[in-house]
């Protein structure tokens, strides 16, 4: 049987597309490599912007449900220097508008999944290749389609049908750690981090801590101006979490003890995350039967734009297809014209923030970014 619209990838963008199509009475099938919705953790918190990510949820008819799970206090921000100097503290009033509330990525994905018919997502379908209107999966099965949408992330198997572009290392490597149930286990550190985002920016290194809805604080240690093989040469023994924490504390020698105390308090989650991006402004000649969204189309640095762009991609592609239900090529062209312009601008802004974070005086430049003259 031929599927009219096949979506590869049950991330936020792919699910937003499926939801908007469903609202408009258009069937689509999402193929996902994970075996089930709970097969893998979905990461930390996202801040959904009112004009992009939240707009996508409005188009999907889910904004009320989103507001029920969003964390207004997640908009809080503290910015510090490595010596402990507090540069900026923004505490969100209880009646503040939900301009950029935080939401747990897993909760948001569940919201989208619960809004779809159960048969809309086919789990355990890892795409091996696509050619001549046919998808080939790792389990030997196949499916044919009229329109294929690659929503399959940074290492997209669909992208090569449209462009030879590949993600490139940015010179940034990140180590993710975390403190579970921080209010109970380390109330002093919980008070220090606060309710939202906590950033300490140094010379080529940074520490960010992010409060999650489940009481966990995720901590990200960033190392700029480092090579793609830096994890192999850094001396961080990832197979021995306790020794890895000791080594990470050594790498932050000279920073205020309160910051290294955060590292010392972490559990045994020590995850290396090399940061890669696609070229800013990437485009491709439109094809009538294939397009991309989200990280598959415009992988950006992790500075707050990626998930918002992916959600809006999915919503706007869904609306374009609903407006041209009998002319997929016209819908794809309309979507891509808008998406290329919008995400190029977002990519340039993300690259600018990335440059600030990697600069010698990152803390002062970021302060100026948040509080322009």
TrEMBL record:
One of its GO terms (molecular function) is FAD-dependent urate hydroxylase activity. It catalyses: a tetracycline + NADPH + O2 + H(+) = an 11a-hydroxytetracycline + NADP(+) + H2O. It comes from the Bacteria. FAD binds at residues 47, 105, 295. Its EC number is 1.14.13.-. It holds the Pfam family FAD_binding_3. The keyword Zinc does not apply. It is found in: Cytoplasm. It is an enzyme of class 1 (oxidoreductase). NADPH binds at residue 40. Its cofactor is FAD. InterPro entries: FAD-bd, FAD/NAD-bd_sf, TetX_monooxygenase. Gene3D superfamilies: FAD/NAD(P)-binding domain. HAMAP family: TetX_monooxygenase. Monomer. Consists of an N-terminal FAD-binding domain with a Rossman fold and a C-terminal substrate-binding domain. This is Flavin-dependent monooxygenase. The lineage of its organism: Bacteria, Bacillati, Actinomycetota, Actinomycetes, Kitasatosporales. The gene is hpxO4.
